[in-house]
Hints:
Rossmann fold, six-stranded parallel beta sheet, 15 helices, single chain, 3 domains, six-stranded mixed beta sheet
Amino acid sequence: MARILPPTEEWSDSEHPVMKALHQTLTDEDVVLVHLNLMEADRDREVDFLVMMPGTGFAVVEAKGGLVSHDKDGQWWTRSRGSRFARVDPVDQARRGKYAVIERLERDSRWGRRGRIAFVHSVAVPFSEFPDTWHSADLSRSALHDKADLPQIGGRLRRLVAELRPGDRVPDHDDIEVAVEILLGGEVWQDGPRPEADLRAGQVARLTTEQYSLLGVTRLLNRVEVRGSAGSGKTTLALEQARQLAGGRQGHPAQKVAVICYTHGLAEHLKREVASWPRRSRPAFVGRYDELAEDWGIPPHDRDDSQWWEQELPAQMAEAAKQLDEVQKFDALVVDEAQDFADAWWTPLLGCLRDPDSGGIYTYADPDQGVFGRRGTPGVPMVPLVLDHNLRNSRQIAESLRPFAPHIRPRGLDGPAVRFVAADPDQVVGVADDLVDELLGEGWAPGDVALITTGKRHEVQRELFDRYGNQGYWASFFAGDEVFYGTALGFKGMERTVVVLAVNDGRMDPERARERLYVGMSRATDLLVVVADPDHIVRVGGRDLAHKLGVTTPHR
Length: 556
């Protein structure tokens, strides 16, 4: 029989039969945590059962009582005897509980470098019955345990982990004991800079969630242009906009939505975020502008061929859009970092709307980050909405960005002072490398740190590209366990806790260099270290920026 922690006699009607079945069908080595309360940025999250099986994996089980049903529209319902049907979402509860457990473990120093393990979520409905042939877009039949399944729930959970997470690392007994200590014993104070960074991250998550209320203003509008400076939460808001439209919220029926951007890193981030949502809330397309072209049958091309990007690609896409049938078209477009799009790019995008005159167009942009020199517009009337709060960056970093965006209003918590390190132009990258080593010595984890260049790529970045290609390179970023090396152009839309910005674009046009400096500085959430020739900072950013960075006089 499984070990139940903490011991309790307080069970709801829905939980008691599930607890009894887990206790009896799991092995003596298995551990079940019950009534697990986890605090998230926006709310407390309760996990009914966390099942930990050495040699197999972890599983969250959400128990839902009453007579549970699932309709053709994907909605879950429950009804107790004599009561009305009530809408519920046990799959979302189970999924969110799983990610809350993962986040809680991975931010604790005691978990160390154990990393992710095989982990699934499931739902138990002890008083309801579902046919073996039942299936749903958001939950497999093997992850739904009904009245008839309970006597075999232990074996079902083991098979479920093998089915959904093959090849993932399985936990050993030590993993489980550490997890019990973390989840039931509370957090411990950690030495080093990470705890305060986690505190600021929680503040950012809360403020960003509060900002979702702005979407209520747009619920009756179908052409909205959201403008905001770096750190204002545009990408998170764009994703929430897409989720609400695709899921049939904001007073709309469910819509077919495309989420589009230009850069590789941002596209990968968007895809990974959307992959964690319930299927019924996912947009129909998420990716880069050129990936949309590939979906339409246009082969990929050299990304450095500006003639193709600026003229040939949009012309080919405009023709392809004319050939799309209604099934292939979209009800709404959500475009992130829209300042990266050229005027000509919007012709095929308008052409892929089912209703070009009133179809949804929602753009999110920072005009001051137009590092690719396009700054196109859809060419149709748009209702502007301005975000003037900086949510992402610490107060010190946000204040350093004021010379680029004077209207910015910092809302982040206090963090470390922004550091400026003077270096000769030909020594900037080498000095930045030494600073990365110093930061790791201060207690920052490698995955907390990014070294970003404003000009030529760092040699480590080139090596990663040559060895793993673009996909493998960005996979290393999302793995989050090593120092990341990138450029201000490629890192736009992304972030790291600590950024060492190597300003190595000394011969670039001052206006372009200024934009890259702004983008690079704004990528750090907690600690920003700028390595540059002081003369260059004065020439590109002006004396106001030099003053904020502590560059009082040029060094020559």
